[in-house]
Each structure stands twice: as structure tokens, then as C-alpha cells.
Amino acid sequence: MFSQKVLDIEQETIEFRRKLHEDAELSFKEFHTTELLISELSKFPGLKLSRPTKTGVIASLKGSAGDGPTIALRADIDALPITEETDVPFASKNPGAMHACGHDGHAAMLLSAAKLLASEQDSLKGEVRFIFQHAEELPPGGAIEMQQAGVTKDVDEIYGLHLQSGIPTGVFGSRPGALTSATDRFDIKVIGKGGHSAFPETCVDPMVVAGEIIGSLQTIVSRSIAAVEPAVVSICMISAGTAYNIIPGEVNITGSTRTFSRETRAKLPGVMERIVKGMCDAHGAEYEFSFSEGYASVINDPELTKIASGIIKSTFGEDHYREIDPLMPGEDFSAFLLDCPGFFADLGTFNGDPKYGVPHHNKLYCMDESALKYGVQFFYDLVKARLS
Questions:
Q1: Section 84-105 average pLDDT
Q2: Are the C-beta atoms of residues 155 and 339 closer than 8 Å to each other?
Q3: Contacts of 157 (CB under 8 A, 6+ apart)
Q4: How far apart are CA 271 and CA 184, in angstroms?
Q5: What is the b/e burial string over 302-327, where b = at least 16 CB atoms within 10 angstroms of the residue's CB?
Q6: Could you report how far apart the first and last alpha carbons of the chain are, in Å?
């Protein structure tokens, strides 16, 4: 199941993950993380390092055994704006920053894979490119910056993993085709006429209009989208008012949409604005509406999915791979797929202990670190299989 090489550095992998966890840094601010990665990667012979963006690192390893394809492996490295409340001794020392989504584990797995593969440069044909990507958590995201900087230029295949507390430790979950949703943002400003709460007849109350807009937006999925097409419209922020007895002049509404098909994604802004305009017109209010596209769906290449899942089953057993339903969370790994086909999967970190079942993006999130060796082994086996 596990090669001795992977087991020999398992504790190193865990310790590096803990170093990153302790010094969690937010998106586009991963300066210490980047320096630490460069320091560690510099120890491995054969790697050529570059920094195509302010934060984030690329390490390239060209095999000495001849020509072959170029394969990229990606890990994200940023933390979330959360103050950690776990009791682990390596908890984040930076208030307001926590690795609550497993990115520290992603970076640790890829670093260990780089170490192992660098020691076998003579047996590889082609190139493996290790991408340590910044700012996955904050659109427009680090992946599109790196893609535009050319890090996936001439790459033939790209692979990535995401640790997942909702799947048993060591089990990989993925599927061919659409794996994650497109994640977009909308902002609505309802502009009324404020005044004294005792005289609503002299006002155009934007609170009433906003309430009707919010209720009507919830009918989009059930009445404007095909029943077989997954979609979500969520209201996540509402702001208005300054005092209990003042009808405000405006209300701001912000939320997100999740879609899978290009057609549904393109359709939503028009449907939403029609609802907003209709409600505002009915009450004599005005509005401002904007729709900002975030991350596109991660679309797994069917052939690469077959290859990668076959490697997982061969290494760990049939029960360590499961085909899962499409995932509503977004993932900016999709930006790299503009240049080449790829495969992305979740790797489970839940061993039955409730503390490891806490969902991601939570101040109590913990990881079963025994899962990390599965990711290292997968990356190692994948590259050996594709570049031998």
C-alpha cells in the first residue's frame, strides 16, 4: 500500500503541515509561507524554483531519462479569516487567520512528493511542475494570476487534491465531468426614500422592497431553472439603517449563486435583475444591480479521471475510491484547466473521532494527519506512472 519512502518521511510531512498551520496567512499575504516553501524546496536537488507572483512558488523538475509529457501538481497555501479556537499545541499564532480548510496539509503533501520525486530525477521522462498557489479563498483567486503568468503553459496534464473532513480517512472522492460548481456573487442596492418611522406614508421604504426581493429570489431555482439542473441562490449579507425609529434610505443585499452548466450560469443575472426591477418599480423605488463571476466549475477530464482513479485503486484498494455527486463549493483550480486537462479529487480526513468531523471554514476544524501520507503516495505514484 505505502512505499517505505513515503512512510519514512510521514512525520516530516506532519511537522511541516504544523509549521504552516501555526503561521497561517490570509490570501495574497502568504509571505512567510512562501519563504518557508522556498527554503525547504531549495534543499532538494534538481528543482528549479520561480516566483511568478508576489506569493506562491513554482518548482520544476525535469527528468533525466529522456523526453516526455509535462505534468503539474497543485496545492493551495492560504488560510481563512477565522480566529482559531482549537486546543492543538500548534494552533495559529495569528489572530484572525486560521488554516480551517486544509491548505496547510495540501502544501505539506506536495512538498513531500517533491522531495521524493527529486531524488528519482534520473528515472523520469519529461517534467513535473509543483505549483504552490496563493489565494484560493479570495476571488479573483491566485490560480488565474498564475495561469496568466504562464505557469501552466505547455503543461499536458494537471492534478490536485483537497482534504475533506466529510469523507473517511484515506478515501478519495471524485467524478468525471463537473466536480465543483461555478461560484458567483451578486450585489443589490435598493434605493428608497427614508424618513420618520411614524410617517411611513411619506417614505418609500426600501426594507419592505428588499424583503419582497429576497423572497422572490428564492423562487428562481424552483421556477426558472430546470428541476434536473443543480443551482443555489443564497442571500448572505443585508445591511441597512442607523436607528430604531428611522426608515432608511437604502438597503444593500449581497449573496452568491452556485451553478454547473454554462447556460444556467449565464441565465441567472437576467432573471435576478428582472425580479429586482419589478419589485422596485411596483413600490416606486430605484435599484443598482451587479453580478460578478467568480470561479468556474472544475471539469475533470474523463480519461485522466480513469487513469487517476485506477492508480488509487491499485495502490490502496477498490474501497479507497468512490464516485461522488457534484460539489457545491467552488475551487479556483478551474483556472488552470483553461490550459490543459486535469483531475481533482477530495481526500478524506475523518477517522471517526467527532473533532475530525468538524466542517471546513470552522474555528474548531481539525485534521486527521494520518491522511497526509495517502496524498503523498498518490502524487508519487501518479508521476512515476505518467513519466516513467
A1: 98
A2: yes
A3: 69, 70, 71, 72, 301, 304, 340, 341, 342, 343, 386
A4: 14
A5: eebbebbbebbeebbeeebbbebeeb
A6: 20
Distance between CA atoms of residues 39 and 54, nearest Å: 16
Q: Are 301 and 309 in contact (CB under 8 A)?
A: no
Q: Which residue has the higher pLDDT, 1 or 77?
A: 77
- Confidence class for position 299, pLDDT limits 50, 70, 90: very high
Contact 213, 253 (CB under 8 A): yes
Q: What is the mean pLDDT of residues 212-228?
A: 96
The predicted-structure confidence for 24-60, as pLDDT tens digits, reads as follows: 999 999 999 999 999 999 999 999 999 999 999 999 9
Residues contacting 89, CB < 8 A, separation 6+: none
Indicate yes or no: pTM above 0.85: yes
Instruction: Point out which residues pair with 328 in neighbouring strands.
Output: none
Give the model confidence (pLDDT) of 365-381 as tens digits. 999 999 999 999 999 99
Mean pLDDT of 255-267: 96
Residue 271, SS3? helix
Find the radius of gyration of the CA atoms of the chain: 24
Where helices occur in 23-174 by DSSP H, the ranges are: 31-41, 103-118, 142-148
What is the Cα 114 distance to its own chain's centre? 22
Three-state SS annotation for 206-245: HHHHHHHHHHHHCCHHHHCCCCCCCEEEEEEEEECCCCCC
Q: What is the DSSP letter of 333?
A: G
Query: Strand (E) positions, 32-176?
Result: 47-50, 57-62, 70-76, 127-133, 157-168, 172-174
CA distance 154 to 146: 14
Instruction: Encode pLDDT of 105-140 as tens digits.
Output: 999 999 999 999 999 999 999 999 999 999 999 999
SS3 (DSSP) at 160? strand
What pLDDT, on a 0 to 100 scale, did the predictor assign at position 277?
Answer: 98
* Residue 163 to residue 372: CA distance in whole angstroms: 9
Residue 121 near residue 47, CB atoms below 8 Å: no
| 8 A C-beta contact, residue 364 and residue 104 | no
CA–CA dist 31, 118 (Å, integer):
25
